[in-house]
Amino acid sequence: MPSLSDSVSVLAGVGPKRVAALKELDIGNINDLLTYFPFRYEDLQAKDPSELTDQAKVTLKGTVAVVPVLTRFGRKKNRLNFRLLIDEHTIIPVTFFNQPWLKDQLEVGAEVVVYGRFDAKRQSLAGMKILASANNAMGSIYPANKSIRQGTIKQLVEAAYDQYSEKIVDLVPEPLRDQYHLLHRREMIHDMHFPADDAAAQAARRTAKFEEFYLFEIRLQIVRQQDHTLHGQPLAYDLTALKAFIDSLPYELTAAQKRVVNEICFDLKRPVHMNRLLQGDVGSGKTVVAAIAMYAAITAGTQAVLMAPTEILAEQHADNLAKLFADFPVNVALLTGATKPAARKTLLPQIANGTVNLIIGTHALIQPEVSYHHLGLAVIDEQHRFGVNQRRALREKGQQPDVLAMTATPIPRTLAITAYGEMDVSVINELPAGRQPIRTTWIRSNQVDSVLREVKAELSTGSQAYVVTPLIEESEAVDMKNAEAIYDRFKAEFEPTYQVGLLHGRMKNDEKNTIMADFKANKFQVLVATTVIEVGVDVPNATLMLIYDADHFGLAQLHQLRGRVGRGQKASACILIADPKNQLAIERMTTMTNSNDGFVLAQKDLELRGPGDILGRKQSGVPDFKVGDPVADLNILSVAQQAAKETVAAPNWDDKDANLPLVAFLSTTAHQNSTMD
Ligand code: ADP
Ligand code: MG
Q: Which atom of ligand 1 is nearest to the CA of 257?
C-alpha cells in the first residue's frame, strides 16, 4: 500500500543519483518531499501595466500585435522583439534575448501571457518566459542545490502530489483545526506548492507553521510525559534537618528562593523523575538553592553531585559548600581533571561506597571510572555550557537521579518552549535585598585614558576591578596576546601602588586557581582576564569592570560578564569600550547601557543575533524549523505548545480515533526535529 513514508525512489525518474541529491536536502520519503515548501513565489497573475513599479517581475497578458522580429548578432546571441497589445490604449514592447524558438509561438493576434522584468521609464518588458496561456497561479520557487535543479524539484513535488494526495490525512486533530481555523492538511500542502494567489499561499503557510510547531511540541510533550511516569526514586528527606540548615544560613532566603526550594522539594519527594530547570539572573542566589536541594537528597540517604563547566567554578563551589555545611553531616569532595592521581585513587572508592555524599566537580564526574553508591540528585550549574551527551551521561549515572539544571541566562519564551520544552521550570525572579544596580557606560577606545583615572579612583576606596580583554573568535593564542599586552599596560600604569594579575585560558589549571584565589584574597586589585572569568566567579569586593571590544560579545554574554560585579553592598560600575562598526552593534551597546534586566537582554539578543548567541554557539537546542520561525512566529508557537499539551494530557490520547493519524505519523517519523535531550 502506498504511504507517505514511501521512499522518493518510487517516483518515476528518481534513481540512486537523485535519491542522493534529495538526501542532501533532507528529503528521504514522500512526506519530506511534500513538506519541502517553496520559499517564495513568482507572481504569475496578469497585471495592469499602469500599476507596475520599475524593475518589478511581472506577468502581462495581451495579444501579439505585430510579427516578432528576430535579430542575430554574433554566433549565439540574438534578440526577439514584438509588441504586446494589452488593451486599446496600451501597447508594451517586449524583448527576449537568446530564446529564438519563441518566435514560432507568437502568432499575430494570438493571446499570450508573458513573464518578465518591467522597465517603467520605457514602458517595456524584458521577457523571461512565455507562460502556458492565462495561467492564473503563482510560480513556486524552491531552495535547490548544485546536485538538483529547481525545476526538477518542482516536477517531483507535482508527481508526488498527483500520486499521493489521497494519502494525505489530517494530523492536527479536528477540534484544534476548527478552533484555530486551519486548513485540512491536503489543502495546506496543495496551496503551499500551487497557490491560486497570494492570499491562498499565506493561509497555507499559517497552517503549515502551526502543524510544524504542533508536531514538534507533541514530541516534546511525549518525552516530558515519559519523564514524569518514569519511575524516579522518592527521596524521603528529613524536613527538620533541612530547616536547621536553612536557619543556619547567614541571610534570610528571598521569597523567590523559598518558592523554588518548595517546588524542588515537592518534586524530590514524589516517585517521579525530576527534570527541572532553575532559572535566575546572575547573583540571584541559585547556589544556595542548589545547596538546600542537595542537602535534602543527602538527608534522604543518597548522594548528590554538582557539575560545573570550569575548574575555577567547581573549586569555588566546593569552598563555599564546605563552609555552608561545616556543621552538618556532609562529606564534601572535589573531583576535577586537576585532581592528582593519588587523591583520585582514594576518592573514587569513597564515592563508590558512599562515604562521600556531596561530590562537586567538572566533566570528571561523568567519566566511566566514576561510579556512585546511590546518586539521588544531580545538579548542573550553567547548564548550557554542557552538551547533550554530557548531561545525559550524568543522568545515567545511578538509577535516573533527579536532575536540577541551573542557568543564569534568562530564557526568552521562544527558547523556553523550543530548547527546554521538556523540562519543568523554576524561576528566581528577584535579587537579594540591598543589591545596587550596576551603572553601565559605553566609551570609544580613544577615551580609555580618562577611564584609567576612574579605575584609580575606585581602587583608592579599597575596591577591586576586572579588566576583560578582547575576544578574538576561534583563537585562544591571539586572545592571550591581547590579554598580555593589556596586562603590561595596566602594570605600567598601576604598579607599585596596586597589584595587577593576569588570567587567560592557556594557563595551567593550578595557575588559574591560584590567581583566582589571590584575587579573592585581595592580593592584587586589578585582574586582567580573558572571558574565562565569565561564569559564576564570585568576588564581592570587585566593583568595577572594564570590557574591551565589548561589541564583539553577545548581550547575554556581556550581561554574564557584568554580573561578576555588583555582588556586594557597594555600588558597582561596568564600562564598555567599543568602536562598533555597524548599526546593530551600536544598538547592542546602547541596550546594554540602558538595561540591567537579563531577560530583556536575552530577548533582544534573540532578535538581533539568534539563539546561538544566548545558549552558546555550538548547540542552542533550538531545532531548525522548515516553515516556522520560532522568534518571528512566537504567537503561533505558543498556541501550538498549549494545544500539544492539551492533546497529550487527555487520558489515553493515543487511543482516540481523532488522534490515530497523528500517532501513526509520529511513529513513522521518530527523530525529526530532535532536541537536546
Ligand atoms: P548565582 O545565582 O549567580 O549563582 P550566587 O548563588 O553565586 O548567585 O549568589 C550570589 C551571592 O548572593 C552570593 O554571595 C550568595 O552568598 C549571596 N546570596 C544568596 N542568597 C542570598 C540572600 N537570600 N540574601 C543575601 N545574599 C544572598
Ligand atoms: Mg552561579
A: 23
Q: How far apart are CA 331 and CA 318, in angstroms?
A: 11
pLDDT for res 625? 85
- The reply to whether domains 239-428 and 439-595 share a CATH topology is yes
Whose alpha carbon is nearest atom 25 of ligand 1?
432
Q: 439-595 maps to which CATH number?
A: 3.40.50.300
In the chain, % of residues over pLDDT 90: 47
Among 299, 294, 347, smallest CA distance to 317 is for 294
Q: Where are the alpha helices (DSSP H) in 536-626?
A: 555-562, 583-594, 598-609, 612-615
pLDDT > 70: what percent of the chain?
A: 92
CATH classification of 45-135 is 2.40.50.140, yes or no? Answer: yes
Three-state SS for 279?
strand
> In this predicted model, what pLDDT tens digit does every residue of 144-161 receive, in sequence order?
888 888 889 989 999 999
- Nearest ligand to the C-alpha of residue 565? 1
Check if the beta carbon of residue 234 is closer than 8 Å to that of residue 297.
no
C-alpha gyration radius of the chain:
32
User: In the chain, where are the structural domains located?
Assistant: 45-135, 239-428, 439-595
> How far away, in angstroms, is 277 Cα from ligand 2 center?
14
Partner residues linked to 404 by β-bridges? 276, 379
Q: How confident is the model at residue 133 (pLDDT cuts 50, 70, 90)?
A: low
pTM of the model: 0.70
User: Could you say which DSSP state residue 80 is in?
Assistant: E
> Residue 335 in 3-state DSSP?
strand
CA 360–ligand 2 middle distance (angstroms): 14
Q: Give the pLDDT confidence score for residue 147 in this predicted structure.
A: 85
Give the Cβ contact number of residue 497 at 10 Å.
10
Q: Grid coordinates in use for 294?
A: 542537595
Inter-axis angle of helices 198-229 and 185-193, nearest 10: 130
Residue, of 535 and 385, whose pLDDT is higher? 385
- DSSP of 218-274, one letter per residue? HHHHHHHHHHHHSBPPP----HHHHHHHHHHSSSPPPHHHHHHHHHHHHHHHSSB--
Task: Please tell me the residue having the least CA distance from ligand 1 atom 5.
Answer: 285
Distance in Å, CA 550 to ligand 2 centroid: 22
CATH of domain 239-428: 3.40.50.300
Residue ranges around ligand 1 (CB below 6 Å): 251, 253-254, 257, 280, 282-288, 408, 432, 536, 538, 567
pLDDT of residue 34: 96
Q: Kindly report whether the peptide bond that precedes residue 623 is cis, defined as omega within 30 degrees of 0.
A: no
SS3 of 453-499 = HHHHHHHCCCCEEEEECCCCCCCHHHHHHHHHHHHHHHHHHHCCCCC
All three cell numbers of 160 = 508526488
Q: Is the dihedral of CA 489, 492, 494, 495 positive or negative?
A: positive
Mean pLDDT, residues 561-578 taken together: 89
Say what the pLDDT of residue 293 is: 98
Would you state the cell numbers that stand for residue 189, as one nine-digit string? Answer: 500542502
Mean pLDDT confidence for 15-37: 93
> What are the tens digits of pLDDT across the range 479-502?
666 888 899 999 999 999 999 999
> β-strands 111-119, 332-335: how paired?
unpaired
Give pLDDT, residue 231. Answer: 66
CB-CB contact of 180 with 639 (8 Å): yes
Distance between CA atoms of residues 31 and 3, nearest Å: 9
Give the pLDDT band (50/70/90) at residue 677: very low
Amino acid at 612: G
